[in-house]
Amino acid sequence: MSTTEETTTAKDDAPPPPADAPAEAKDSDAPAEASNGDAKKDNGEAKKDSAKDAPKATVAEAASYEDKEFVAPAPKKKGKKTAEVAVRLSKVTKRFGVKTAVDGISLKIKAGSVYGLIGPNGAGKTTTFSMMAGFLQPTEGAVEVLGFTPSHVDELRGRLGVLPQDALLPNTDTVGEFLSHMAALQDIPADKIRTEVESVLAEVDGRDWMKLRCSQLSHGMAKRVQLAQALLGEPEVVLLDEPTAGLDPRVAYEVRQIIKSRKGRCTLIVSSHNLQELEEVCDGAAILDRGRVVAHGSIAELTASSQEVHIKLAPGPVPLQELRALPMIKRVEFDDEKSEISVYFERGSVDAETVIGQVLWVLLNNQARISGVTKGKGLEQRVMELT
Amino acid sequence: MNPLKEVQLILLRELRKNFRSVKGIVLLLISLIGSFGAALLLVKFQAFKRGQIDEAARTTQGSVEVTASAVKEFIHDGRIKALTPVYGETTAKYIADSPEVLYAGLMITIWLTPMLIALLGFDSFSGDMQHKSVRYWTLRTRRGSYFAGKFFGLWTTVSAVTLAIHALIWAVCIFRGEATAAETLSWGVRFWVVSLPMSAAWCGIAVLVSSFFRMPMVALLTTFAANFALWLVWVIGVASDTNALLYFYPNFYDKLLLSPQLWTAASGFGACALMATLCVGGGTLIFAKRDV
Fold first, then answer.
1. Do the interacting molecules here have an ipTM over 0.90?
2. Which terminus, N or C, of chain B has the lesser number of Cβ atoms within 10 Å?
3. Bridge partners of A372?
4. Which of A:174-193 have CB within 8 Å of B?
C-alpha cells in the first residue's frame, strides 16, 4: 500500500473556502490572495489600489494578516521598510500589440511563503513573473514588491533575487567575476563579496567553478550559477522562473532541494509548468490560463486534499454501502475503469487522516484489497480540469 | 547605492569585457598594426622629401641647410594655405607648426574612430538584449546608470585604443627623427585630447542606436547607416554652404577643437559633450520605459 501526502503546513487543516471561490471569500491565512480584474473584490480594491495610493494600501492590508507562520525571518536592512505582503499585483494587464498576455490579474503573496505560478504554455506565467521582476512594464494596473514598484531598484537592491528563465550568462566573464560583479552591484561590502560568492556557489554545489568561464558551463551548471546569482545576499523575495526547465532529473532534484532549503528564509515565487515540482515545494499557488487566474489558494485547497481521498483497489469486494454509512462521509463514488473509490467529506469538520483511518478500517473489515491511497486529487488533475 | 558607483562598476566590467573579447582584441591589434604601418609610410614619405631636398641642394650647388630651410618654409606656408579653408587662418597657422606625421595621425584617428566605435559598440546593448542578460543588470542598477556605464565603458575603451594608436605614432615620430621627444609629446597629447570629445559624440550615437535593437547585426548595420547619414548631411552642408548642417557631424568639431583660442576650443568641446549627453540622456529615457 502506498500513501501520497501533500506538503502542507498546520494551517492547511483549517477550514479555508474552496480554492476556486471568489476572492472575497478567501480567508487571510492563505499564502496568497488572487483574482482577476472582474472579481468583485478587485472592483472594490481598485480605488485603494491605484498606483498613487499603493504603498499605503499595502501596509494597511498587510497589517490585517494575522498568521505569522508565513512571515519569513528575513534580515531587516537598515533604512528599508519591511512588508508582510511580499508581492502584490493589482488588476495587472499586459498587452503585446493586440495580444493580451495577462488580463487583469490581482494577487497578493504573503512574505515567507513559497508560491507557485502554474499554467500551460502561454498562460501568462512568465509575463506575470517578468512584471514582478520589473523586466516588463504592465500596460495597466500596479505591481509592488515589498511595497515598492519593481523600478525602484535602489529600494529593492539586494532584497529581490530573480532567476530569469532564458537570460544567458555573459560569455566573457568567469563565474567568480560575474557573481562578484553582481554582488558589488547589490552593495555587498567589498570585503565580504568573496565570502558571499563562495557561500552561494557552495549552496548550488559549485564550489570549484569560480574560475570557469560562463561559456564553458553545461546547461545544468549554468542554471545553478543563475540560481546562485538569484540567491546572492540573502534576498527577501526570490523569483524563480522555470528553475528546473531542461535539467536532467538529478540536477532538477538538486535544484528543488536548494529551493526547499530556502523555505522560511525568504519568500519564494516559482513559475513552472512542472506540477509535481510545485506540489512538492509550494505552500500555495495560482493557476493561470489565458492570462487570467482560474484558481488560487494553498496547495491543500487546490488539490482538495482536505476534502477528498482516493483509494485504489485490486480486484475483490467493493463495500460501498458500508463506506456510505460512515458518519463523516458526504459522498462515495466508485470508478469501475480505474478501480478507484473516491470519498468526499466536509472540509473542516474532520481531517483527512481521520477519514483515511476510518475508510481503511471499513475496507479491511470487508476484505477489500487496497493497492493505494491518495489524499486529494493531485495538482496535475486539478490543472487539467481548470485549463 | 550612489548612481555614480553603479556607473563605475558597469564601466569597469565593460572594460574587462571589451579588452577580453575576441572582437576587442582583434580590433585593437588591427588598429595598432594599421596605425603603425601608416606612421611608417608617412615617415618614409618624409624621408623621401628630405632626399629630394638633398638632391636639389646638390644640383643647385647650394648649401643643404639653406635649401632645407627654404623648403621647410615653403612646406609650412603650403600647409597654412591648405589648412586655412578648413580651419581658418589662426588655427591653420597653429596646426602648421605641428609635426606633419602627428597631424596625419590625428586625421587617421578622427576618420577611423567612427568605424572603430561602430564595430566595438554595436553589440554593447543589443548583445545583452538579445540574450536577455540585461535582466541581471536592470534588477540591480538604475537603467540610467546601466546606459551611462555602457557609454563610458565604450568611450574609455575607444580612448585607450586611440591612445595606443597615437603612442605608436609618437614612437615612430621620435625614433625616426621627425621631431624631438618634447615636441612630439606636446603635440601628440594635444591631438589625442582633441580626438576624445569627438569620439564621445560617436560613442553616444553608437550606444543609442545599439539600444534600439535586439539583434546585434541589425544594430551594426544601422550604426553604419547612421554614421553615413551624418556624413552625408555634412557633405550637403559643405556643398550648399549651409553651416547649420555641419554641426550634426561630430567630426566637424575638430575645426573648433584644434583652435589655439581657448573659447573656440571650449565651444567645440561643449558641442561634442552636448551631442553625447543628448544621445545618452535620450537613450536612457527610452530605455527606462521599455521592456527588457
1. no
2. N
3. A312
4. 177, 181-182, 184-187
